[in-house]
Amino acid sequence: MNEILGVFMSEHKIIIDILNLAEDCKALDYLRILKQHNEASFNHSLRVALFSYHIADNFLKGDALDAGLSGLLHDIGKIYISPAILDKEGPLLNYESFLIHSHPVQGEVVLRELGVNDKIRIPALKHHRLSKKPYPSNTKILETDPVDFINVVSAADRGDVILFPRKYNGDNINIEGRVLDEFMGNKEFIRYILINKEKYTKEGLAITNFCKDYIQTKRLS
Description:
Blueprint: H1 2-24, H2 28-37, H3 39-60, H4 64-73, H5 83-86, H6 94-100, H7 103-113, H8 118-126, H9 147-163, H10 175-182, H11 187-195, H12 197-217
Helix pairs in contact: 1-3, 1-4, 1-12, 2-3, 3-4, 3-9, 3-12, 4-8, 4-9, 7-8, 8-9, 9-10, 9-11
């Protein structure tokens, strides 16, 4: 029991460290807005932060906290998407998909206005480019982009879709196979999450429960 508790406390420290980085770049208030706007998207962002941290720590051997921050902020543009669309059960209508597909651009604008550096900001814009159906359509991944971070955040995002399926994805039959087939980045990053599926499912639930009140009431140093 003590060993399990120690693991969860370690994950709490990781997410607190990442939230402190968000405070440093003036993004914490936007995360508070996201939490109030759509808690499911906020919880998804927490888990993507945690998964991004662990993927980077395991494969990149450095920059794990920055990768976690990039994961935390990747969906910040969803503050501009109606909760009715974000929480819709079943497939989206065409106009709803159009609005969902706008969130990377919206998020990049927020982060650029905050002065967030490219390594953190660009994955927010391009985390859906590593797909068979990439968007936004007017963006491409360039050689000068932080490609490793785009790959990490994209894989963490897709891993979370498998572990915690979203309502607007429709049915979840063979979701693991479908996500892996559609993902055009480093599939080993997603497989790393899946190999540790039970562990990361528990940790994902633990950090979202921990952060329910933490981000609202705790002044981060």
